[in-house]
Structure formats: structure tokens, C-alpha cells
UniProtKB/TrEMBL annotation:
Signal peptide interval: none
Protein name in UniProt: RNA-binding protein
InterPro entries the record matches: CvfB_fam, CvfB_WH, NA-bd_OB-fold, S1_domain, WH-like_DNA-bd_sf
Pfam family, one: WHD_CvfB
Record organism: Anaerococcus octavius
Gene3D superfamilies: Nucleic acid-binding proteins, Winged helix-like DNA-binding domain superfamily/Winged helix DNA-binding domain
Amino acid sequence: MPFSERTYRVILDMTYPVAFKVDSNGEIYLTSKIRDLLTTDHDFHENDEVSGRIYSINKSIGAFVAIDNKYDSLLRIDELKGVFVEGELVHARVKEVKDDGKIELSLRQRAYLEIDNDSDKILDYLYENGGLAYLSDKSSPSKINKIFGMSKSSFKRAIGRLYKNNDIKIFDNRIELVKRI
């Protein structure tokens, strides 16, 4: 692949979404510039499970994913937890299909399925931090996301469940683990 056609560093033994192109001399070459070759004409619906390869990462927007090497989609930056690289295969859920056919993906399950994982994350944090977290349902979404990697609404659902199960107490500026005898 010509250097000018690379949009990312190529790592040996990784698989990448690429395309064949023909230059003005009739020579065939590879390119990683595939965005214009992907389509938004698809039959995907909200909550469908899909797989695709990351073909571009924009640190302020998110990761662009080629589903089935044909369809363009976006995994927003707030969905990306951990390290992701171009060429990485991701399994995701269709979060939203826009009117123009653009697809937004999520690495999280639907809210009612994810609540157990979210509750466990909060409990783990409380156990590791002396049973105390200086967060509440009034905390900023960015602070909640930074600590737990979840949206504010997911956080509120999870602490609601923990409160209902008598696992935590909720105060104006903190949550506390209920001490069991």
C-alpha cells in the first residue's frame, strides 16, 4: 500500500479494511481511504447486533466503523472506553439509524440488560473506596462518565436499583454502601 494511501500506521498481522483502486496508468494499488466507498443504504434497525472494523479514529468525534466491509457507521467518543486502534474488529449494537441512513453504534447492551453490569461497577468502586463515592444523582454527566464510564441516566438507573435493594444510601453529595451485619 503506498504510504500516501495510509490513514493509519499498519501493524504486521493485523487485518484492515482496504480497497483496491486503479491509478491513471492502470496500476492497481491498495488504499485505506475507504469512507467514500462505504454506503448508508442498508437494512439495519435499532438494536441489531453488528460487527465491523474500525477504519478511522477521530479523537473528538469517535471511531468510524465499516460494518461488513460495506456500511459506514460511527461509534461516538463517549462509547469508547479503553484503547482502540484502526483495524480492530468490534461487535456492537445499532444505537440509532438516522433519517439519512447514518448508523450510530454502541458497545453497551440495551439499558435494561446493562443495569446489572452498571450496578456491579458501582458496587466494586464502593468496595474499593471505603464504601463511599462523592457522586449522586445531581453530579455532572462528565464526572460520572469519567469515574464509571457510563451515562448519567445509566448511573441513576443503577443507583436506583442498588437503593431499592438496600445496598446503598443516597445523600445529596455522595452515596454510601450499606453496612451488612
